[in-house]
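ingest -> fold -> write
write: protein_1
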Amino acid sequence: MKPNIIYIVSDDLGYADLGCYGGRDAAFGAVSPHIDALAAGGMRFTEGYANSPVCSPTRFALLTMRYQYRLRGGMEEPINSRSKGSTTLGLPPDIPTLPSLLREAGYTTALIGKWHLGYPPAFGPLRSGYDEFFGIMAGGVDYFTHCSGKGDHDLYLGEDEHHEVGYLTDVFSQRAVDHVHRQAAAARAGRPFFLSLHYTAPHWPWETRDDAHVAPEVAANLFHLDGGNVESYRRMIHHMDEGIGRLVAALREQGLLENTLIVFTSDNGGERFSDNWPLVGGKMDLTEGGIRVPWIAHWPAAVPAGSVCAQQGMTMDWSATLLDIGGGRPDPRYPLDGVSLARVLRDPAQVFERPLYWRMKHRGQRALRQGDWKYLQVDGHEYLFNLAQDARERANLMRKHPDTFQTLRQAWLDWASEVPDIPDDAAVSLGYSTQDMPQR
């Protein structure tokens, strides 16, 4: 019997923000007990990556199971407000997606949460394989007013604007719980569901459940450059964790937990208040802190509890895995770049070599991870690191191992020649600079 699939994506979560990845407790206690329980009852990956160190490019790869660079919108870093009304900066409806192919395989499909892949009428979740959508189209909104940085109200039910009172993380969690209860009878009868639950937490603005008074202060600049702290950031993660706990409880109540595959990850590495230890860098960086993220899989019927896996992979591999497990078939016109990890989920010892490539217009960054080695270029400077020995990327081995450096450098160049060039008009949207805070 095909499993139900829940694909949970957090937003800007750091590698070590969760307790199960070594994160510290907050003043109020454990930050992520329910997510930690998923890891304890399933598989935790130590070397999983996002397709990009910034949000919308990763989401292009997540949906298409292909490198984001194959689509014009995927070259934005990230898609910003100029995409509203654009017919090019979004996910084209004719491109096969994970939900569209799972729907062909018999799944009902729904997205609750963040889309960030272009606006209707040219683009939208309902045009790219989802039967249902409840969430935001923009890259970020206020947690209470649900308005984007332009001041537009940005909460939708389908393609219709929808007003609802509530803290956005809790609103998404409740919708997900309700969705499970609504789909339960059909799922038990053999019609599985695929639910994408894409939180905005813990993305700025820095608002906990008790911070409605902050909304008017940040309305003109959601980057919230003069606010936030580690404690409020951890509480934002905790609110998401509580919702995930309620979702797991709903699955258990409906008798669906045993045969539901839950995947948890982040769209990129952490931002201002996150903990990426022992990694260096964060969002917008191709150093490890910008791309290595939590990867957790929980599926009692198939995934061994308490397992830890060192398989290397990136977001599009998760999506290819879900398509494989759900019995979906790739469209031969759009061959996948993602690779299924299904065999690894059943046996964490079945690891295999998986070269991973990245490219950023921002700072001219390049990266290739292959085995223990990583080739990196930033601001025209090139590096070679052995990540098994130096996860912080502090010991440049380029001159000590010139043959390895040249081999990886050429491999990156060969790969880059097979994907479209970044156009000159592709946007790099930073939001803040060293004028606002010192560099990491």
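write: protein_2
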Amino acid sequence: MRNTIKIVKRLVSEMESYIYCNNYDKVNQLADELLNLTKMIKEQSTNIDKYGNNRINKASNDYPGFTLISTLPFLYKPIEVKNYYDGDYLEKFGERRTDDLKSAKVLELHNKFWMSNNVEGGNIFGSIPLELIKKDSANKLLSYGWKETDVSIYEIEEINLKELDRFCSRTFRHYIIATEMRNNTKLVLKFDI
């Protein structure tokens, strides 16, 4: 949630700049993004009780050292081969992913999101929170073969990255390990695929 609030602050600042330049088309576009982000914050905050405890952290019993902080809908681009490290599959996959995101007009938003959440490992190579993008963009990505799924986001206590990756690869079929750059928090995103 902290990362989402950081993006909201940046968007408000950008909106102010565009208002001074009388670029109201860009202000409207940013306002739409801002509405989507505030919906995401509202959904996340409904999972916190009045004492600041996460009401859905029961999963931490399932995975010691993991605290479930949120479950959000994401769009992801599925891998179509079993051995994706063989040959140049991932390179071509990355090119197609970039083309899809450009065509849906969400490449910049995708890149900003994943720059603020640095990917450390995992086996999902194209994804974006559904609530960050407009419905038309989501429909376009879906038409390109992207899929929608729920993603459980866990905050992780201190653990060696190699051990975390080993644990996740044995425990989860589809996941991303990321570091939230603002406060250096380790996250695991478990994709329900």
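write: annotation protein_2
The beta strands are 66-76, 117-122, 127-129, 147-156, 175-180, 185-191.
The CA atoms of residues 106 and 121 lie 23 Å apart.
pipeline exit 0
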